[in-house]
Amino acid sequence: MRWLVGWSSIAAGALGGAVGYDGRQDDGAAYGGQVGYDGETLHPVGSQLLWGDPDPLWAVGDWRPDEVRVVQADAQTRIAVLGTCGASDEQLRVGLFAARGGALRHLTAWSGSYTAIVQVGRRVTVCGDLAGARPVFHTPWAGGTAYATAALPLADLIEANLDFGHLAALLAAPDVPAALHDSTPYDGVRRVPPGHALILRAGAREVAGYEPVASLAVAAAPTDPDSAVEGVRDALIEAVRARLSAPRHVPDIDPGPVPGMGPAERRAARGMPVPGIGADLSGGPASGTLALLAAGLPGMPGTLLGHGTGAGERLLAVTFNDLAVGGREAELERAGALAANPRLHHVVVAGSEEALPYADLDGPLTDEPGASLVTAARHRARLAAGSADHFTGYGARQVLDAHPARLADLLMDRKRRHLVRPVAALTKADGSVLVPARVYGAARRLARTSYRAGVEGLAERLLHRSFSFDDPGGAVGASLAALTWGGAGPAARWLTGEALAEVSVRLQGAAHRSGVGPGQRPGDYRARAALTRHAMDLRVLEQAVEIRSQRLHAPFLDNQVVRACRALPETLRVQPGARAAILRTVLKGAGVTDLPPGWGAPSQAPVTAAARAGLRMAMDPLLTLFEAPLLAEAGLIEARVVRKALRAAAAGEPLPLDGLADLISLELWLRRLLSRRGTCWTGTPARARAVPAGIAPQRRAVSSGG
Length: 706
Fold this sequence. Notes:
There is one protein chain. By secondary structure, the protein is an alpha+beta fold. The longest helix is centred in the last third of the chain and has 23 residues, at 522-544. It starts with a strand and ends in a 24-residue tail after the last strand. The model is unreliable at 13-33 and 302-311 (pLDDT under 50).
């Protein structure tokens, strides 16, 4: 796990001196002058100091040398960029001078995925990303403000307790930003929303947006589809090139042979990735596009000569074959056809029952909870055969596809004729002649419903447990459920009335908060919320499956790629098969035209079958997990209700398995958090860590959720 942390205090420290990242002695400052309980200097465990002064900054974790860059104009003006950034040092210097005048957006406009921090005198600016994959957190501390790119270090710093209102909202309304707002699982630690920057001035904090938001009053300017797709192509190519141009990383040298094991088996057994660059190759359009782009661009994308296979320019393409649950034969065939490219070295990872969801309930503590905790072993099996730098197609669906609520946007812009093809596709999938009327009616209601009315309606439904779980399944049911400003999460049916009331109060407070509103159309608003949720889940997955010396790259979540995808016209997005058509055009523009038959077909991967099979295999450990769950101690669920649901789901009853995954993963995360020892900081006693007293009994019935 890698993160950065710093703080801005009101008064300058007066203790000793601190050495910055460039080796310069900073006189008159010792980590901001902050000390621990016993007078020791306070700093993070395993950190490297980037700069001292009254407002220090550290990088913590196994950062590569090329991932940490500091450019300094003078003693009081500097910029730090952590992550993969395609900007040169000169571009960073120009950006620093522009940021000194208050401009922020250009700091997020370079290719790659990174976090930029600018210090100008006593003003510190930390820029978050657009998707939410690189969030920024902050909390009041020692008369100023501490900030970090992880929430747990700040929770340790202030000994934060759990925010049960946030945990209830994660289960009851995970896709509704109004329910979560800027809270985190830790009480007192706040999150900077995507598309915003945290600005600190001598300890005082401000959160400012740097991205323009479309107006509700005026329709978006018409965009040429061809030029928009070209923009996506250019952004994706630059995102891939930024990774290829970075210095190659060679994991720790193999200490020697093991009898009966080849080099690849030895690396996997020791948790070492293959040197060089690789990519997922699932047979779907997103991973296939990145693999072909990375293999086709100049710059030796494959493994290093003399390491691994010795294939020099070949990119390692990894395909996961689920032997426990069939149904992916067509995808595997397409992956094999793509891997016939001589620039690809194809590896198929077979997974049986040990790679099913819930097969391994042990794992590392992540910064926040996420549903991917129950599938971490499944993903780790695939990534263990991957490269030191591994491309993934995560986020493509969220940035390219049309959220069903965008149908309401088309009605608001008087573009009814563009609803014909998506509604016809839903009708064909369902087979009912009533589908067009139902979908059009739901889209019309959403177009005429204000944001405040939509949030208040959801709060009322949660308060009275009036969920609609009888909607038809399939694409039609999902589309109808999504044609709202926000809906209840799949785990809401198993929460207690008190927990639902807590979330209802949070929603009502958001609806009545002065000046609060999305400032955009419902479809655009829901699409951004879905992207943020997916980015949060991916961040948890990356921490849960982390393999030493490996980096996962998700170019679809880069700022410039997200911006290019947002420029796509809605009339193009809503058409059936739009994502595959866009990516096919991207590949064609990059010179790749030989794609296998059926490429881009909708994935029919048996995710539900795998989840149900995993539940059946892990039923005994899961029932033991919910004998005396911490969620019940916190008042969020009743244990017997969840145990009954687990048995019913394993027996085949039509229950939302993703809701059970949310419950199980949150329970696992709570147990890992409370069983941890130590803290993220030195200079403090062992008691200075998050949730020091465990789960305290809740005396209040409903809190304000502020």
